[in-house]
Specification:
The protein folds into two domains: about 1-35, no CATH class; about 35-70, no CATH class. It is built from three helices and two strands; from the N terminus they run ββααα. The protein has helices at about 20-30, 40-50, 60-70, and strands at about 5, 10-15. The model has no long low-confidence stretch (mean pLDDT about 80).
């Protein structure tokens, strides 16, 4: 079993992100990228902690709420 698939641009990606187009964006812009800002780290940890409980379209709503609570 292979753990990668070819994305629409021909680049190999993790198999899990092929399930929906928005997963590709998350994979290419957030997954595995280091975070050095404390607010961004808090946001990322919070989103990952709630990941199993949230539908995919709720991430933006939660991200917005976290950002507004930190200002």
């Amino acid at each position: 079993m292979t753990t990668a698939f070819e994305g629409p641009d021909g680049k190999p990606r993790c198999r899990w992100c092929g399930a929906a187009p928005e997963f590709l964006v998350y994979h290419d812009t957030e997954w595995g990228f280091p975070v050095s800002d404390d607010h961004r780290l808090f946001e990322k940890l919070s989103l990952e902690a709630f990941h199993d409980e949230l539908p995919d379209d709720a991430r933006a709503v939660v991200r917005s709420a976290i950002a507004s609570s930190q200002t």
